[in-house]
């Protein structure tokens, strides 16, 4: 059991965080009023999102357990910590932090949608693509601004939602 926990500690913590967000989505959907005119209602999307996320968490947990060999061999705890590397989790952690900061900027700080979305998209694309020249960074920044403005126009004029 110790070996399983040490080898999969980051995955287990991540699954617990995702499950907590899914549970919060389900709880939030239960607080919404029932639909009066449309068949699905406003709670359908967060409820479906929470249920799908919990299902995927369960499938990933089953996959972790199945991939673990049932034989426990005595291991030196220092060799486990020496072989563990946080480098492969740096990019996902930075993406998660970027998403949390984006949502916090829009929800709590009241930053304009176009500004926060363009900064978020630029940071996310730079994290994922790792541009190697200033020209590519400027191209990413420009495309982020254009995409944020287009999204704002679509929400305002197509969906009539002023974000």
UniProtKB/TrEMBL annotation:
The chain crosses the membrane at residues 44-65, 92-109, 137-161. It comes from the Bacteria. InterPro entries: DUF1468. The keyword GTP-binding does not apply. Residues 10-161 form the DUF1468 domain. Keywords: Membrane, Transmembrane, Transmembrane helix. This is DUF1468 domain-containing protein.
